[in-house]
Amino acid sequence: MSMKQSERVCCCIPIRLGVLIISTLIFSIYLVETILMFVYRKDLEEWSTMEQNVDIPLTLEAFNSVFYSFASIFIAYILISFLGIIFIFLRHRRMVRIYHVMNWFFVLLLFTVTVAYWIYFKVKQDIYVNDCQDLRNMKNNVTVSPFYTQIRIPGKQLIAPGADKSECINLIRRIVIISGVFIFIFNLLQIYWAKSIGKYATSLKKNYRHKRIKTFEDNDDILSARND
User: Smallest Cα–Cα separation from 82: which of 145, 122, 34, 46?
Assistant: First the structure.
């Protein structure tokens, strides 16, 4: 008998195997991301706290708060995913259900954070164009000129001078588009994976109910046979 569509993921993979693969992917992706975060922590810190002529950098305390917040979320998600793999392998109905709920929590949390950061980046892209231009000026040794000065607008950020900012404008625009597409695909995959885990949790629940009903029916048949 052919397997029902509701008992498969990605069109053709049996649901239990598919959810095991999905949970392993989640575990592996966030494990690699966490390792890379700590490997390149110093580079991230230098980039985030770098002082420029036109920008106020993050303080070390602010950087550490952001860094360890993300690290904590990723590590927690890694642990949940690892436990989820074990629960799915053991077919533990209640624990798979808990894993399903916890997974949705992290999916929605990461969806909110990534979309919020992307919106902030898009809204503030002029600031990053300004930063980019200032870095270009420093790279081309423009800032050492005695005639070099930033443009001052009262109440606003200093503006890096430059007759042609098209290179920086196009660069930041491409980053906004590429990061937006990546975040969209990333969150779409996360939601699909979460729904697949939920589908497996539901199938375990249905199988459990079916077995209980079957047990009751068998017991009724045994009692009826004895009474006869």
Answer: 34
